[in-house]
Specification:
The complex is a heterodimer. By secondary structure, chain A is mainly α. Chain A is built from 14 helices and two strands. In chain A, helix 10 packs across helix 13 (306-317) and helix 12 (285-292) packs across helix 13. The longest helix of chain A is centred in the first third of the chain and has 22 residues, at 2-23. In chain B, strand 10 (141-151) and strand 11 form a beta hairpin. Chain B is α+β, with helices and mostly antiparallel strands. The chains are: A mainly alpha, B alpha+beta.
């Protein structure tokens, strides 16, 4: 009898210890991202959302799961496809459930650990909160985070994934958002021909060198290296689309000086991220270059000869990172 | 053998037991939303002194960053101090604190709303979880105070109003500091009288607020002055 009691207590004690260890994060596999050494420190505070293999796996699953949308037809990946720099290329404006059309071109997703604002007007102040916008937008997923959590909670697959990631099978808004952030933070693009040129392991041909010089002289103030964005909002001279009536940053700050300012997009992987601009009005890269070489762009015409335009595009193509675009770790989770 | 097992478990549990028994004293604040001394309950019809009818369908607000003071000096600051009070859930209206036993106090400070640092800190759980319906998804930021209902003077459809007061960015930061003198008792009642809010609103002009704006700041200031402490 005594031995049985002892066994029971030992079992209870062991279970207690295991539970405590699990709650402390024991069992999850920490992940440290490999940041390029010549880049500045990320702005994302990883101490508040430490990456784990299990957290990233859950986030990847959520990213590709249409369960986030009201009628379970649209996922994050519907507008953010891995092999097109995590944007879509077949629509000027993003589309959502029931063939609804939004008002903006879906942005690319990469190097988000260094981003300070999200969305074209910077409406979102933190990567964790970004997913809330498409989840609840009526022209995108037309859902709410409350309903998403309720929908996934009874599913055994998610109960297991949440337990693996957070030592607790309960889905919460915080965990859904942090897991999606974990996956998105892994989307680092830093192995283009340009990056290898900077590291000295590859060299530009003459055309790319010419294009790089043109870029540094005319484009770099806004599309600053190494991210090819200054992470700020600029007015690039695009006339207002009178149908969309989108005034950009002014919608958030209510300041007239922010009228028609939009977040400067990265140029990394620009070869694959067409159409261009916040409303997807340009389908070809040469149309973008022609726009900046015209007087329309903020009145500051960039004088470019036809050859210089070709050189500039040749440089922009060196920003393609095929390892990023076709990384199997970023694609649809097959397991 | 049995005794040994107890000893082992006791060794691990003793610190927890001591912590539970620790030298702390409980203090609770019972928040009571009222309208001109009338206790508010959801959908319960009320009358203003002018005879106008009103009823609330929803009332939720954040109280955060509780600090206890004695002669102006901080004696206790609650950690992770974020509370969502919801008229639909009576338990949420009672805030319980465990103060150090030797902490004498004569006043307390808290925020009506969520501070800017928390607004910028990414996803959080508990009362701050975005599933609680107090976070703007289209423009990041917590809604500090949400009140929806019916008021006879409101010119909107069905006389229904919606006030979602929030926002943390200049020029419209809406979280407000509240300072209250309190007695060193185990529990105190705090009335939150919404009458002055209703009086200040220019009903024909503005009966819906759902984004950061000057009126949201102005109304939040009125609300911050609507708390009063009572001994029972």
């Amino acid at each position: 009898m005594r031995i049985k009691n002892f066994q029971f207590l030992l079992l209870f004690f062991t279970a207690f210890c295991l539970l405590a260890a699990a709650r402390a994060g024991w069992g999850s596999d920490p992940v440290e991202l490999d940041f390029p050494k010549n880049w500045p420190q990320p702005t994302y505070d990883f101490s508040k959302n430490p990456l784990t293999r299990e957290g990233i796996e859950l986030g990847r699953r959520l990213f590709y799961d249409p369960i986030l949308s009201r009628d379970s037809t649209v996922s994050c990946a519907s507008c953010h496809l891995s092999f097109t720099a995590f944007t879509h290329v077949d629509h000027a404006l993003s589309h959502g459930i029931e063939d609804r059309i939004g008002t903006r071109n879906s942005p690319t997703l990469m190097n988000l650990a260094w981003a300070k604002h999200f969305m074209w007007d910077g409406a979102i102040n933190h990567l964790d909160f970004q997913a809330l916008a498409p989840i609840s937008h009526p022209s995108e997923m037309d859902n709410s985070i409350e309903k998403v959590v309720r929908k996934m909670q009874p599913k055994p697959v998610y109960r297991a994934l949440f337990f693996n990631a957070f030592a607790d099978s309960t889905a919460t808004g915080e965990r859904v958002l942090k897991a999606i952030s974990q996956f998105e933070l892994t989307l680092i693009s830093a192995n283009s021909k340009y990056d290898r040129m900077v590291l000295g392991t590859e060299i530009f041909n003459q055309q790319e060198k010419n294009g790089y010089a043109i870029f540094q002289k005319n484009c770099a103030p806004c599309h600053a290296e190494p991210f090819f964005t200054n992470h700020d909002f600029e007015k690039n001279g695009l006339p207002l689309d009178t149908f969309l009536k989108d005034f950009g940053r002014m919608n958030i700050t209510k300041l007239a000086s922010d009228s028609l300012k939009f977040k400067v997009p990265t140029l990394r992987n620009i070869e694959f991220s067409y159409p261009y601009m916040h409303d997807g009005r340009f389908r070809k890269l040469r149309e973008v270059v022609n726009f900046y070489a015209s007087t329309a762009a903020t009145g500051q015409k960039i004088e470019l000869s036809p050859n210089e335009k070709v050189d500039l595009v040749a440089f922009l193509l060196t920003l393609t990172d095929r390892e990023f675009l076709f990384n199997p770790a970023f694609s649809f989770p097959k397991n | 053998m049995f005794r040994f097992a107890f000893q082992v478990i006791g060794m691990f549990c003793l610190p927890l037991f001591l912590q539970a028994q620790g030298t702390e004293k409980p203090f609770s604040l019972h928040f009571q939303p009222v309208f001109q001394q009338q206790k508010i309950a959801l959908d319960k019809p009320l009358k203003t002194s002018g005879g106008d009818s009103l009823a609330l369908h929803e009332l939720r607000f954040y109280l955060t960053n509780f600090v206890f003071l004695k002669n102006g000096a901080v004696v206790f600051a609650e950690k992770n101090s974020h509370h969502l009070l919801d008229l639909e859930d009576e338990n949420s209206l009672v805030l319980k604190f465990q103060l150090p036993e030797n902490a004498g106090f004569d006043s307390l400070k808290f925020d009506l709303g969520v501070d800017s640092l928390t607004n910028l800190s990414g996803a959080m759980g508990g009362d701050l979880d975005p599933t609680r319906g107090m976070f703007w998804t289209w423009q990041s930021g917590y809604i500090n105070f949400k009140m929806e209902g019916f008021f006879e003077k409101c010119p909107a459809r069905n006389h229904e109003f919606q006030f979602h007061l929030g926002g943390y960015l200049p020029p419209f930061p809406t979280a407000q500091k509240v300072f209250l003198p309190v007695l060193e008792k185990e529990k105190m009642r705090v009335d939150f009288d919404l009458a002055s809010f209703f009086e200040k609103i220019d009903w024909p002009k503005k009966h819906n607020i759902m984004s950061p704006c000057a009126e949201a700041v102005e109304n939040s200031r009125v609300l911050a002055k609507s708390f009063s402490v009572h001994a029972n």
